[in-house]
Amino acid sequence: QVQLVESGGGLVQPGGSLRLSCVASGSIFSLYHMGWYRQAPGKQRELVARITSGSSTNYADSVKGRFTISRDNAKKMVYLQMNSLKPEDTAVYYCNAEAVRSGRTYWGQGTQVTVSS
């Protein structure tokens, strides 16, 4: 069982930056692939970035070169550094954990990111 809590969302102007954080508790963090997803109003939830237990990363095409995902296994944290933000990045961002062995997934409660002037 894993509990996930996101933080770091907020209101930012276009071109600005935000850093999202997600802290995990309840299990061995290094045995999970971690990801950030987002859901904008009226749209489906989509993958933004993912980092495996071995720290391989992949990104949605729309955020490549602007967002960076990282993890700190000792602190049980995963981060999403978001630069050059655009209005279309506005969404609720969710932290996700996927157990390497079972594939079971867990979700955080989400944090709102709003990019607007």
Summed up, what is this model?
This protein is mainly β and 117 residues long. Helices cover 0% and strands 53% of the residues. The protein is built from no helices and eleven strands.
Biggest beta sheet summary: 7 strands, mixed
Strand content: over 45%
Specify the overall morphology.
globular
Please report the distance between the alpha carbons of the first and last residues.
40 Å
Enumerate how many helices there are, as a single number. Answer: 0
**Topology, number of strands:** 11
Whole-number mean pLDDT: 96
Detail the poorly predicted runs.
none
Helix content: under 10%
Written account of the structure:
- The chain is mainly β and 117 residues long.
- 0% of the residues lie in helices and 53% in strands.
- It is built from no helices and 11 strands.
- It has strands at 3-7, 10-12, 18-25, 32-39, 46-51, 57-59, 67-72, 77-82, 91-99, 105-107, 111-115.
- Strands 2, 4, 5, 6, 9, 10 and 11 form a 7-stranded mixed beta sheet that branches. A 4-stranded antiparallel beta sheet has the order 1-3-8-7, with no helix packed on it.
- The model has no long low-confidence stretch (mean pLDDT 96).
